[in-house]
Inverse folding.
Protein backbone atom coordinates (compact mmCIF):
# COMPACT_ATOMS: atom_id res chain seq x y z
CA UNK A 1 0.00 0.00 0.00
CA UNK A 2 1.44 3.36 -0.97
CA UNK A 3 1.70 6.39 1.27
CA UNK A 4 -0.46 8.49 -1.01
CA UNK A 5 -3.24 5.92 -0.90
CA UNK A 6 -3.12 5.82 2.89
CA UNK A 7 -3.21 9.61 3.12
CA UNK A 8 -6.30 9.85 1.03
CA UNK A 9 -8.03 7.31 3.26
CA UNK A 10 -7.26 9.05 6.60
CA UNK A 11 -8.71 12.43 7.44
CA UNK A 12 -7.56 15.05 9.93
CA UNK A 13 -10.42 14.14 12.22
CA UNK A 14 -9.35 10.50 12.09
CA UNK A 15 -6.02 11.53 13.59
CA UNK A 16 -7.73 13.25 16.51
CA UNK A 17 -10.12 10.36 16.95
CA UNK A 18 -7.05 8.11 17.06
CA UNK A 19 -5.57 10.27 19.85
CA UNK A 20 -8.82 10.15 21.82
CA UNK A 21 -9.44 6.42 21.31
CA UNK A 22 -12.67 6.99 19.40
CA UNK A 23 -11.85 4.74 16.43
CA UNK A 24 -13.21 1.28 15.82
CA UNK A 25 -10.78 -1.54 15.03
CA UNK A 26 -10.83 -1.21 11.26
CA UNK A 27 -10.30 2.53 11.20
CA UNK A 28 -7.71 2.29 13.97
CA UNK A 29 -5.61 -0.14 11.89
CA UNK A 30 -5.93 2.09 8.85
CA UNK A 31 -4.63 5.12 10.82
CA UNK A 32 -1.75 3.09 12.25
CA UNK A 33 -0.81 2.02 8.72
CA UNK A 34 -1.01 5.62 7.60
CA UNK A 35 1.19 6.91 10.43
CA UNK A 36 3.79 4.29 9.55
CA UNK A 37 4.29 5.84 6.13
CA UNK A 38 3.46 9.53 6.86
CA UNK A 39 6.08 11.02 9.15
CA UNK A 40 4.44 14.48 9.17
CA UNK A 41 1.17 13.04 10.37
CA UNK A 42 3.03 10.91 12.90
CA UNK A 43 4.79 13.99 14.27
CA UNK A 44 1.52 15.85 14.64
CA UNK A 45 -0.14 12.94 16.34
CA UNK A 46 2.82 12.81 18.69
CA UNK A 47 2.27 16.49 19.53
CA UNK A 48 -1.43 15.89 20.12
CA UNK A 49 -0.65 13.02 22.45
CA UNK A 50 1.78 15.25 24.32
CA UNK A 51 -0.96 17.85 24.60
CA UNK A 52 -3.23 15.27 26.08
CA UNK A 53 -0.57 14.31 28.56
CA UNK A 54 -0.10 17.91 29.58
CA UNK A 55 -3.84 18.40 30.03
CA UNK A 56 -3.99 15.31 32.22
CA UNK A 57 -1.06 16.58 34.23
CA UNK A 58 -2.85 19.92 34.61
CA UNK A 59 -5.92 18.12 35.85
CA UNK A 60 -3.90 16.19 38.38
CA UNK A 61 -2.32 19.35 39.68
CA UNK A 62 -5.68 21.03 39.97
CA UNK A 63 -6.98 18.00 41.87
CA UNK A 64 -3.92 17.78 44.11
CA UNK A 65 -4.95 20.89 45.97
CA UNK A 66 -8.37 19.39 46.56
CA UNK A 67 -11.54 21.34 46.21
CA UNK A 68 -13.24 22.75 49.25
CA UNK A 69 -16.46 24.47 48.24
CA UNK A 70 -17.21 27.78 49.86
CA UNK A 71 -20.24 28.15 52.11
CA UNK A 72 -22.61 29.29 49.35
CA UNK A 73 -21.57 26.48 47.03
CA UNK A 74 -21.82 23.98 49.85
CA UNK A 75 -25.32 25.17 50.64
CA UNK A 76 -26.33 24.82 47.00
CA UNK A 77 -24.90 21.30 46.89
CA UNK A 78 -26.97 20.27 49.92
CA UNK A 79 -30.13 21.82 48.50
CA UNK A 80 -29.54 20.05 45.22
CA UNK A 81 -28.98 16.74 47.00
CA UNK A 82 -32.26 17.24 48.88
CA UNK A 83 -34.14 18.01 45.66
CA UNK A 84 -32.67 14.95 43.95
CA UNK A 85 -33.56 12.74 46.89
CA UNK A 86 -37.11 14.03 46.84
CA UNK A 87 -37.41 13.36 43.12
CA UNK A 88 -35.99 9.90 43.52
CA UNK A 89 -38.47 9.05 46.29
CA UNK A 90 -41.44 10.34 44.33
CA UNK A 91 -40.33 8.34 41.31
CA UNK A 92 -39.90 5.21 43.40
CA UNK A 93 -43.34 5.76 44.88
CA UNK A 94 -44.89 6.14 41.46
CA UNK A 95 -43.04 3.11 40.17
CA UNK A 96 -44.18 1.09 43.19
CA UNK A 97 -47.80 2.15 42.67
CA UNK A 98 -47.61 1.24 39.01
CA UNK A 99 -46.09 -2.13 39.83
CA UNK A 100 -48.78 -2.84 42.42
CA UNK A 101 -51.50 -1.89 39.94
CA UNK A 102 -49.93 -4.13 37.30
CA UNK A 103 -49.77 -7.01 39.79
CA UNK A 104 -53.43 -6.55 40.71
CA UNK A 105 -54.45 -6.52 37.07
CA UNK A 106 -52.37 -9.63 36.42
CA UNK A 107 -53.94 -11.42 39.38
CA UNK A 108 -57.37 -10.41 38.19
CA UNK A 109 -56.67 -11.66 34.70
CA UNK A 110 -55.25 -14.97 35.94
CA UNK A 111 -57.54 -15.78 38.84
CA UNK A 112 -60.47 -13.44 38.45
CA UNK A 113 -63.90 -14.48 37.22
CA UNK A 114 -64.46 -15.00 33.49
CA UNK A 115 -65.34 -11.88 31.52
CA UNK A 116 -68.93 -13.02 31.05
CA UNK A 117 -69.40 -13.36 34.78
CA UNK A 118 -67.87 -9.97 35.34
CA UNK A 119 -70.26 -8.49 32.80
CA UNK A 120 -73.17 -9.97 34.72
CA UNK A 121 -71.99 -8.25 37.85
CA UNK A 122 -71.47 -5.04 36.03
CA UNK A 123 -74.92 -4.95 34.48
CA UNK A 124 -76.77 -5.16 37.77
CA UNK A 125 -75.49 -2.10 39.62
CA UNK A 126 -76.93 0.54 37.26
CA UNK A 127 -80.36 -1.03 37.55
CA UNK A 128 -80.18 -1.20 41.31
CA UNK A 129 -78.09 1.83 42.14
CA UNK A 130 -79.68 4.45 39.96
CA UNK A 131 -83.02 4.16 41.69
CA UNK A 132 -81.42 3.86 45.08
CA UNK A 133 -83.32 0.70 45.93
CA UNK A 134 -80.74 -0.70 48.32
CA UNK A 135 -81.96 1.74 50.93
CA UNK A 136 -85.24 0.00 51.05
CA UNK A 137 -84.90 -3.35 49.41
CA UNK A 138 -81.38 -4.44 49.95
CA UNK A 139 -79.23 -5.90 47.22
CA UNK A 140 -81.83 -7.66 45.10
CA UNK A 141 -85.50 -6.98 45.86
CA UNK A 142 -86.54 -9.38 43.14
CA UNK A 143 -84.41 -12.32 44.19
CA UNK A 144 -85.11 -15.20 46.54
CA UNK A 145 -83.30 -13.74 49.53
CA UNK A 146 -85.12 -14.57 52.79
CA UNK A 147 -88.13 -15.53 50.82
CA UNK A 148 -90.37 -17.75 52.99
CA UNK A 149 -94.04 -18.35 53.19
CA UNK A 150 -94.21 -17.92 56.96
CA UNK A 151 -91.31 -15.63 57.65
CA UNK A 152 -91.69 -13.06 60.42
CA UNK A 153 -91.97 -9.43 59.46
CA UNK A 154 -89.83 -7.41 61.78
CA UNK A 155 -91.02 -4.08 60.45
CA UNK A 156 -90.60 -1.65 63.26
CA UNK A 157 -90.78 1.51 61.17
CA UNK A 158 -93.71 0.22 59.21
CA UNK A 159 -95.36 -0.82 62.42
CA UNK A 160 -95.09 2.67 63.89
CA UNK A 161 -96.51 4.33 60.84
CA UNK A 162 -99.22 1.82 60.33
CA UNK A 163 -100.36 1.47 63.91
CA UNK A 164 -103.98 0.87 62.95
CA UNK A 165 -103.45 -1.02 59.73
CA UNK A 166 -103.39 -4.62 58.95
CA UNK A 167 -101.83 -5.81 55.77
CA UNK A 168 -103.03 -9.14 54.60
CA UNK A 169 -101.80 -11.19 51.73
CA UNK A 170 -104.24 -11.10 48.84
CA UNK A 171 -105.26 -14.28 47.12
CA UNK A 172 -104.55 -13.93 43.43
CA UNK A 173 -105.14 -17.54 42.49
CA UNK A 174 -108.16 -16.51 40.51
CA UNK A 175 -105.80 -14.65 38.19
CA UNK A 176 -103.46 -17.56 37.75
CA UNK A 177 -100.97 -16.29 40.33
CA UNK A 178 -100.11 -18.54 43.22
CA UNK A 179 -98.30 -17.35 46.30
CA UNK A 180 -94.61 -18.27 46.52
CA UNK A 181 -93.47 -16.50 49.66
CA UNK A 182 -92.90 -13.17 51.35
CA UNK A 183 -90.71 -11.29 53.75
CA UNK A 184 -89.93 -7.90 55.22
CA UNK A 185 -87.20 -5.95 53.47
CA UNK A 186 -85.07 -4.13 55.99
CA UNK A 187 -82.77 -2.18 53.73
CA UNK A 188 -83.59 1.24 55.15
CA UNK A 189 -85.22 3.03 58.03
CA UNK A 190 -88.63 2.21 56.73
CA UNK A 191 -89.18 -1.44 55.96
CA UNK A 192 -91.34 -2.79 53.22
CA UNK A 193 -93.24 -6.01 52.77
CA UNK A 194 -92.66 -8.10 49.74
CA UNK A 195 -94.99 -10.81 48.49
CA UNK A 196 -94.03 -12.96 45.55
CA UNK A 197 -96.42 -14.76 43.20
CA UNK A 198 -95.82 -16.92 40.19
CA UNK A 199 -97.93 -17.73 37.18
CA UNK A 200 -98.12 -21.16 35.58
CA UNK A 201 -95.13 -20.35 33.35
CA UNK A 202 -92.98 -19.55 36.33
CA UNK A 203 -93.00 -15.77 35.71
CA UNK A 204 -93.01 -13.85 38.93
CA UNK A 205 -95.15 -10.97 40.08
CA UNK A 206 -93.99 -8.90 43.04
CA UNK A 207 -96.17 -6.97 45.38
CA UNK A 208 -94.43 -4.39 47.54
CA UNK A 209 -96.01 -2.40 50.33
CA UNK A 210 -94.21 0.42 52.11
CA UNK A 211 -94.92 3.59 54.04
CA UNK A 212 -95.55 6.97 52.45
CA UNK A 213 -93.05 9.65 53.30
CA UNK A 214 -90.10 7.38 53.05
CA UNK A 215 -87.93 6.56 50.08
CA UNK A 216 -90.34 3.75 49.31
CA UNK A 217 -92.12 6.10 46.89
CA UNK A 218 -89.07 6.14 44.70
CA UNK A 219 -87.74 2.72 45.37
CA UNK A 220 -90.96 0.96 44.56
CA UNK A 221 -90.75 2.17 41.01
CA UNK A 222 -87.71 -0.02 40.45
CA UNK A 223 -88.40 -2.81 38.03
CA UNK A 224 -86.27 -5.52 36.45
CA UNK A 225 -85.77 -5.44 32.72
CA UNK A 226 -88.88 -6.52 30.81
CA UNK A 227 -91.17 -5.76 33.72
CA UNK A 228 -93.69 -3.05 34.42
CA UNK A 229 -94.68 -1.49 37.70
CA UNK A 230 -98.11 -0.31 38.82
CA UNK A 231 -97.87 2.10 41.74
CA UNK A 232 -100.55 3.58 43.92
CA UNK A 233 -101.08 5.00 47.35
CA UNK A 234 -103.63 4.30 49.96
CA UNK A 235 -103.48 6.59 52.97
CA UNK A 236 -100.07 6.20 54.46
CA UNK A 237 -99.22 3.16 52.37
CA UNK A 238 -97.61 2.94 48.99
CA UNK A 239 -98.04 -0.10 46.80
CA UNK A 240 -96.18 -1.44 43.80
CA UNK A 241 -97.22 -4.38 41.74
CA UNK A 242 -94.48 -5.48 39.42
CA UNK A 243 -94.77 -8.12 36.76
CA UNK A 244 -93.85 -9.01 33.18
CA UNK A 245 -94.76 -6.38 30.59
CA UNK A 246 -96.87 -8.75 28.59
CA UNK A 247 -98.85 -9.88 31.61
CA UNK A 248 -102.60 -9.37 31.20
CA UNK A 249 -103.27 -10.04 34.84
CA UNK A 250 -101.62 -7.09 36.51
CA UNK A 251 -104.56 -4.74 36.44
CA UNK A 252 -106.89 -7.42 37.69
CA UNK A 253 -104.40 -8.32 40.36
CA UNK A 254 -104.22 -4.68 41.34
CA UNK A 255 -107.96 -4.50 41.71
CA UNK A 256 -107.94 -7.64 43.76
CA UNK A 257 -105.23 -6.19 45.94
CA UNK A 258 -107.46 -3.20 46.58
CA UNK A 259 -110.21 -5.48 47.71
CA UNK A 260 -108.03 -6.62 50.53
CA UNK A 261 -108.09 -3.22 52.12
CA UNK A 262 -110.58 -4.09 54.76
CA UNK A 263 -111.07 -3.65 58.49
CA UNK A 264 -108.92 -6.07 60.39
CA UNK A 265 -110.79 -8.88 61.95
CA UNK A 266 -109.66 -11.62 64.25
CA UNK A 267 -108.12 -14.47 62.37
CA UNK A 268 -110.15 -17.51 61.71
CA UNK A 269 -108.94 -20.94 62.44
CA UNK A 270 -106.88 -22.57 59.78
CA UNK A 271 -106.03 -19.22 58.25
CA UNK A 272 -102.62 -18.72 59.78
CA UNK A 273 -100.44 -20.74 57.51
CA UNK A 274 -98.44 -17.78 56.36
CA UNK A 275 -98.58 -15.26 59.14
CA UNK A 276 -95.82 -12.91 60.03
CA UNK A 277 -95.98 -10.87 63.17
CA UNK A 278 -94.23 -7.71 64.13
CA UNK A 279 -92.93 -9.03 67.36
CA UNK A 280 -89.57 -7.32 67.72
CA UNK A 281 -90.86 -4.05 69.12
CA UNK A 282 -94.18 -5.25 70.43
CA UNK A 283 -94.73 -6.87 73.81
CA UNK A 284 -96.11 -10.41 73.62
CA UNK A 285 -99.36 -9.38 75.23
CA UNK A 286 -99.88 -6.79 72.57
CA UNK A 287 -98.70 -8.88 69.72
CA UNK A 288 -100.25 -8.43 66.37
CA UNK A 289 -103.24 -10.56 65.79
CA UNK A 290 -103.43 -12.23 62.45
CA UNK A 291 -106.50 -11.02 60.72
CA UNK A 292 -108.90 -12.91 58.60
CA UNK A 293 -109.55 -12.15 55.03
CA UNK A 294 -113.02 -11.09 54.15
CA UNK A 295 -112.63 -12.19 50.60
CA UNK A 296 -109.80 -14.62 50.72
CA UNK A 297 -109.57 -18.08 52.06
CA UNK A 298 -105.86 -18.01 52.74
CA UNK A 299 -104.21 -16.36 55.78
CA UNK A 300 -101.96 -13.37 55.29
CA UNK A 301 -98.86 -11.70 56.51
CA UNK A 302 -99.96 -8.97 58.84
CA UNK A 303 -98.71 -5.72 60.23
CA UNK A 304 -100.52 -4.76 63.35
CA UNK A 305 -100.47 -2.06 65.97
CA UNK A 306 -99.10 -1.96 69.46
CA UNK A 307 -102.40 -1.57 71.22
CA UNK A 308 -103.63 -5.07 70.76
CA UNK A 309 -106.90 -3.95 69.31
CA UNK A 310 -107.28 -2.54 65.91
CA UNK A 311 -107.79 1.18 66.00
CA UNK A 312 -109.41 3.43 63.49
CA UNK A 313 -107.05 5.45 61.40
CA UNK A 314 -108.11 8.74 59.86
CA UNK A 315 -110.15 8.33 56.77
CA UNK A 316 -107.81 7.70 53.94
CA UNK A 317 -108.20 9.42 50.60
CA UNK A 318 -107.39 7.36 47.58
CA UNK A 319 -104.40 8.74 45.78
CA UNK A 320 -103.84 6.73 42.66
CA UNK A 321 -100.65 7.69 40.96
CA UNK A 322 -100.40 5.94 37.64
CA UNK A 323 -103.53 3.89 37.45
CA UNK A 324 -107.02 4.87 38.55
CA UNK A 325 -107.97 3.02 41.64
CA UNK A 326 -110.70 0.45 41.18
CA UNK A 327 -114.05 1.46 42.61
CA UNK A 328 -114.18 -1.39 45.08
CA UNK A 329 -110.80 -0.53 46.43
CA UNK A 330 -111.72 3.14 46.70
CA UNK A 331 -114.79 2.42 48.73
CA UNK A 332 -112.90 0.12 51.00
CA UNK A 333 -110.24 2.74 51.53
CA UNK A 334 -112.67 5.44 52.45
CA UNK A 335 -114.78 3.54 54.91
CA UNK A 336 -112.61 1.00 56.59
CA UNK A 337 -109.27 0.56 58.27
CA UNK A 338 -106.72 -0.44 55.74
CA UNK A 339 -105.71 -3.97 55.25
CA UNK A 340 -104.22 -5.80 52.37
CA UNK B 1 -34.06 2.64 60.44
CA UNK B 2 -35.75 4.56 57.66
CA UNK B 3 -34.20 7.77 58.95
CA UNK B 4 -30.74 6.23 58.94
CA UNK B 5 -31.27 4.95 55.42
CA UNK B 6 -32.49 8.38 54.37
CA UNK B 7 -29.44 10.05 55.88
CA UNK B 8 -27.13 7.61 54.14
CA UNK B 9 -28.87 8.23 50.85
CA UNK B 10 -28.60 11.97 51.31
CA UNK B 11 -24.92 11.74 52.27
CA UNK B 12 -24.20 9.63 49.22
CA UNK B 13 -25.96 12.10 46.97
CA UNK B 14 -24.08 15.00 48.56
CA UNK B 15 -20.80 13.17 48.10
CA UNK B 16 -21.52 12.42 44.42
CA UNK B 17 -22.55 15.98 43.84
CA UNK B 18 -19.42 17.33 45.49
CA UNK B 19 -17.31 15.18 43.15
CA UNK B 20 -19.19 16.49 40.14
CA UNK B 21 -18.94 20.07 41.40
CA UNK B 22 -15.18 19.69 41.88
CA UNK B 23 -14.87 18.67 38.22
CA UNK B 24 -17.17 21.50 37.26
CA UNK B 25 -15.09 24.02 39.13
CA UNK B 26 -11.86 22.65 37.59
CA UNK B 27 -13.36 23.01 34.14
CA UNK B 28 -14.65 26.51 34.92
CA UNK B 29 -11.29 27.56 36.29
CA UNK B 30 -9.39 26.69 33.13
CA UNK B 31 -12.23 27.88 30.93
CA UNK B 32 -12.54 31.28 32.55
CA UNK B 33 -8.97 31.64 33.75
CA UNK B 34 -10.06 33.31 36.98
CA UNK B 35 -10.70 31.49 40.27
CA UNK B 36 -13.30 33.99 41.44
CA UNK B 37 -15.15 33.92 38.17
CA UNK B 38 -14.98 30.12 38.24
CA UNK B 39 -16.67 30.12 41.65
CA UNK B 40 -19.35 32.47 40.37
CA UNK B 41 -19.93 30.26 37.34
CA UNK B 42 -20.23 27.16 39.52
CA UNK B 43 -22.72 28.81 41.86
CA UNK B 44 -24.81 30.14 39.01
CA UNK B 45 -24.74 26.71 37.39
CA UNK B 46 -25.87 24.99 40.60
CA UNK B 47 -28.64 27.54 41.13
CA UNK B 48 -29.97 26.89 37.64
CA UNK B 49 -29.83 23.13 38.02
CA UNK B 50 -31.58 23.38 41.39
CA UNK B 51 -34.38 25.41 39.80
CA UNK B 52 -34.71 22.89 37.01
CA UNK B 53 -34.77 20.01 39.49
CA UNK B 54 -37.56 21.66 41.42
CA UNK B 55 -39.44 22.21 38.17
CA UNK B 56 -39.22 18.44 37.56
CA UNK B 57 -37.21 18.80 34.40
CA UNK B 58 -36.02 15.33 33.42
CA UNK B 59 -32.32 14.68 34.10
CA UNK B 60 -30.78 11.44 32.86
CA UNK B 61 -27.06 12.04 33.27
CA UNK B 62 -26.33 14.45 36.08
CA UNK B 63 -22.69 15.01 35.13
CA UNK B 64 -23.54 15.84 31.52
CA UNK B 65 -26.42 17.98 32.73
CA UNK B 66 -24.16 19.98 35.04
CA UNK B 67 -21.58 20.56 32.31
CA UNK B 68 -24.25 21.51 29.79
CA UNK B 69 -25.63 24.05 32.24
CA UNK B 70 -22.11 25.31 32.87
CA UNK B 71 -21.68 25.76 29.11
CA UNK B 72 -24.81 27.92 28.99
CA UNK B 73 -23.77 29.88 32.05
CA UNK B 74 -20.33 30.48 30.57
CA UNK B 75 -21.80 31.69 27.27
CA UNK B 76 -24.06 34.12 29.13
CA UNK B 77 -21.13 35.34 31.23
CA UNK B 78 -18.94 35.73 28.16
CA UNK B 79 -21.57 37.88 26.45
CA UNK B 80 -21.70 40.16 29.45
CA UNK B 81 -17.93 40.27 29.63
CA UNK B 82 -17.41 41.30 26.02
CA UNK B 83 -17.68 44.97 26.88
CA UNK B 84 -14.97 44.63 29.45
CA UNK B 85 -11.23 44.61 28.81
CA UNK B 86 -10.11 41.17 27.80
CA UNK B 87 -7.51 39.85 30.15
CA UNK B 88 -6.19 36.45 30.98
CA UNK B 89 -5.12 36.31 34.63
CA UNK B 90 -3.02 33.22 34.17
CA UNK B 91 -1.06 33.87 37.34
CA UNK B 92 -4.27 33.59 39.34
CA UNK B 93 -4.83 30.14 37.94
CA UNK B 94 -1.21 29.27 38.53
CA UNK B 95 -1.69 30.20 42.17
CA UNK B 96 -4.35 27.56 42.52
CA UNK B 97 -2.11 24.78 41.24
CA UNK B 98 0.23 22.53 43.14
CA UNK B 99 3.16 23.17 40.87
CA UNK B 100 6.32 21.12 40.79
CA UNK B 101 9.46 22.72 42.15
CA UNK B 102 11.08 22.21 38.76
CA UNK B 103 11.11 25.55 37.04
CA UNK B 104 10.85 24.03 33.57
CA UNK B 105 7.71 22.13 34.44
CA UNK B 106 6.24 25.21 36.01
CA UNK B 107 6.82 27.13 32.77
CA UNK B 108 5.28 24.34 30.75
CA UNK B 109 2.09 24.52 32.80
CA UNK B 110 2.03 28.26 32.43
CA UNK B 111 2.51 28.01 28.67
CA UNK B 112 -0.30 25.49 28.42
CA UNK B 113 -2.67 27.74 30.33
CA UNK B 114 -1.69 30.70 28.20
CA UNK B 115 -2.20 28.70 25.01
CA UNK B 116 -5.60 27.51 26.18
CA UNK B 117 -6.60 31.05 27.04
CA UNK B 118 -5.64 32.14 23.55
CA UNK B 119 -8.00 29.69 21.90
CA UNK B 120 -11.45 30.76 20.74
CA UNK B 121 -14.02 29.89 23.40
CA UNK B 122 -15.79 27.25 21.31
CA UNK B 123 -12.52 25.44 20.60
CA UNK B 124 -11.35 25.85 24.17
CA UNK B 125 -14.53 24.26 25.50
CA UNK B 126 -14.17 21.20 23.31
CA UNK B 127 -10.46 20.78 24.04
CA UNK B 128 -11.12 21.01 27.78
CA UNK B 129 -14.15 18.71 27.79
CA UNK B 130 -12.31 16.01 25.84
CA UNK B 131 -8.75 16.58 27.02
CA UNK B 132 -9.17 17.79 30.60
CA UNK B 133 -12.43 16.09 31.61
CA UNK B 134 -11.96 12.97 29.47
CA UNK B 135 -15.38 13.10 27.86
CA UNK B 136 -16.18 11.13 24.73
CA UNK B 137 -17.14 12.96 21.57
CA UNK B 138 -20.75 11.98 22.13
CA UNK B 139 -20.78 13.30 25.70
CA UNK B 140 -19.17 16.54 24.60
CA UNK B 141 -21.73 16.90 21.83
CA UNK B 142 -24.53 16.49 24.37
CA UNK B 143 -23.00 18.99 26.75
CA UNK B 144 -22.51 21.59 24.06
CA UNK B 145 -25.75 20.69 22.29
CA UNK B 146 -24.06 20.43 18.91
CA UNK B 147 -23.67 17.57 16.41
CA UNK B 148 -20.81 15.19 16.98
CA UNK B 149 -19.24 16.30 13.69
CA UNK B 150 -19.06 19.86 15.03
CA UNK B 151 -17.27 18.59 18.12
CA UNK B 152 -14.73 16.78 15.93
CA UNK B 153 -14.07 19.76 13.72
CA UNK B 154 -13.77 22.18 16.66
CA UNK B 155 -11.45 19.77 18.41
CA UNK B 156 -9.34 19.39 15.32
CA UNK B 157 -8.93 23.13 14.88
CA UNK B 158 -8.44 23.78 18.58
CA UNK B 159 -5.75 21.16 18.98
CA UNK B 160 -3.92 22.29 15.89
CA UNK B 161 -3.96 25.88 17.13
CA UNK B 162 -2.77 24.75 20.53
CA UNK B 163 0.02 22.73 18.98
CA UNK B 164 1.23 25.67 16.97
CA UNK B 165 1.05 27.98 19.96
CA UNK B 166 3.04 25.57 22.06
CA UNK B 167 5.64 24.56 19.51
CA UNK B 168 6.28 27.71 17.53
CA UNK B 169 6.80 30.00 20.48
CA UNK B 170 3.60 31.90 19.91
CA UNK B 171 2.87 31.57 23.56
CA UNK B 172 5.51 34.14 24.33
CA UNK B 173 3.62 36.65 22.24
CA UNK B 174 0.42 36.24 24.26
CA UNK B 175 -0.60 39.25 26.22
CA UNK B 176 -0.47 38.39 29.88
CA UNK B 177 -2.27 40.84 32.11
CA UNK B 178 -2.26 40.49 35.82
Amino acid sequence: MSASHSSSAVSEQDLHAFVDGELDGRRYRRVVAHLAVDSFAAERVSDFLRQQGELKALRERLDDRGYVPDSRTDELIRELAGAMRHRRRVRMGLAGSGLAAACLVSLWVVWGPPPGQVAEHLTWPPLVLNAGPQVLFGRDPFGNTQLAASEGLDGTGLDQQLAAYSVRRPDLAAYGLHFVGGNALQGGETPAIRLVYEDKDGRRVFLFVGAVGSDADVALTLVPEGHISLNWRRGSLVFALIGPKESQQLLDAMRATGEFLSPPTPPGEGEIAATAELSASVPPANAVKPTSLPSATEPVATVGHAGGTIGHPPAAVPEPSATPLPAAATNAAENRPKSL
Amino acid sequence: MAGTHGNLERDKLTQDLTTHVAALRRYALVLAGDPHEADDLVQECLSRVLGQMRAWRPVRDLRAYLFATMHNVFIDATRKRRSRVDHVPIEDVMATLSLPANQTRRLEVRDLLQALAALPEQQREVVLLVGLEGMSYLEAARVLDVPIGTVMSRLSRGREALRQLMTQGSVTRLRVVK
